[in-house]
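Re: beginner question about structure tokens

> Can someone show what the tokenized structure looks like for a real chain? I only ever see the sequence side.

Sure, here's an example I had lying around. Input first:
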Amino acid sequence: MCRTGIKVPERYDHIFEPQNTILTLDYLLLKDLSGDMGIDRIYKFLLCIQLEQEFLRRFPKRYVLDVLRNYNIEYKETPDNICGIVFAATTGRALLSMEDIAICLKCDRVNI
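And the corresponding structure tokens:
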């Protein structure tokens, strides 16, 4: 018996059926995992979260928070994928910078 007073079986009990437990991995990922089930889905979910965290760690915390605030002032409540928001903002800025460089290269003089 455990501290809560519930009798804990000494051996595996089929009543719990963990293989049939429905998981709701509510955090939206950039990758669709709807085709995966069970432990495979959990494993892939954790890998995706790890990759997203590695990506986000490459940016200063202030930058990420500014991007999120610009996206939605109530960013803490948004169900959207944080990594996707930062990726879109960063990609947009990079593309704008490339356009600026292309315009400058056509100029007679480039100020650096």
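Each token stands for a local structural state, so reading them left to right follows the chain. The mean pLDDT is 77.
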